[in-house]
Amino acid sequence: DSGVTQTPKHLITATGQRVTLRCSPRSGDLSVYWYQQSLDQGLQFLIQYYNGEERAKGNILERFSAQQFPDLHSELNLSSLELGDSALYFCASSFGRQETQYFGPGTRLLVL
Amino acid sequence: AQTVTQSQPEMSVQEAETVTLSCTYDTSESDYYLFWYKQPPSRQMILVIRQEAYKQQNATENRFSVNFQKAAKSFSLKISDSQLGDAAMYFCAYRSAETSGSRLTFGEGTQLTVNP
């Protein structure tokens, strides 16, 4: 157990819908990262937050957004969902920007 | 942009034997970190080992060790005394120590099978 929690574990929804994925970092970790793992794109970095502020953006679609709250948990919002958004979404956390990232169990999203 | 390449999509090893997984990367930076993560069938991403580029000594963690060749931009993982529980997808990952962001860039992965 890495200490990073993600909810829900599984999510099935329809095209055009909006979902919110939640992540709680390890106790004391200030950085949260979101990654997407899909069959065709592999593991891709989406976005990073550090102590509530956005620090880096990767290949994140405009339909996707994220935020980190004062209690340091983070949410990834996916809207206008498409079939191609079906993937495993990981959250990872680290204490600082340069520390090792520990991953949560992931949220499996299936868009039908 | 940095890239990470794992040229072996699949590897197999006999239980108790040794196997080496290959990884190469491309970067113009001099300060960075390299990682191996393991993803078993549960899909959980588990850190196996970490190497700082400024350290010449190769990292080791119990049965896992790396061969870090900075000039060749090579970072292979050696698993000794392979166990059935080592069967998983293994990802090599790069992280810059120079830029403000700390994203991980992953390779495509190597699926390791351990035969009893």
Description:
The complex is a heterodimer of chains A (112) and B (116). With 112 residues, chain A is mostly beta strands. Chain A has strands spanning 5-7, 10-13, 19-24, 31-38, 42-50, 53-57, 64-68, 74-78, 87-94, 102-103, 107-111. In chain A, the strands form 2 sheets. In chain A, strands 2, 4, 5, 6, 9, 10 and 11 form a 7-stranded mixed beta sheet that branches. Chain A has a 4-stranded antiparallel beta sheet with strand order 1-3-8-7, with no helix packed on it. Chain A is globular, with a radius of gyration of 13 Å. The termini of chain A are far apart. Chain B has 116 residues and is mainly beta. Chain B has no helices and 12 strands. In chain B, strands 2, 5, 6, 10, 11 and 12 form a 6-stranded mixed beta sheet that branches. A 4-stranded antiparallel beta sheet of chain B has the order 3-9-8-7, with no helix packed on it. In chain B, strands 1-4 form a two-stranded antiparallel sheet. Chain B is globular, with a radius of gyration of 14 Å. Chain B starts with a strand and ends with a strand. Classes of the chains: A mainly beta (112), B mainly beta (116).
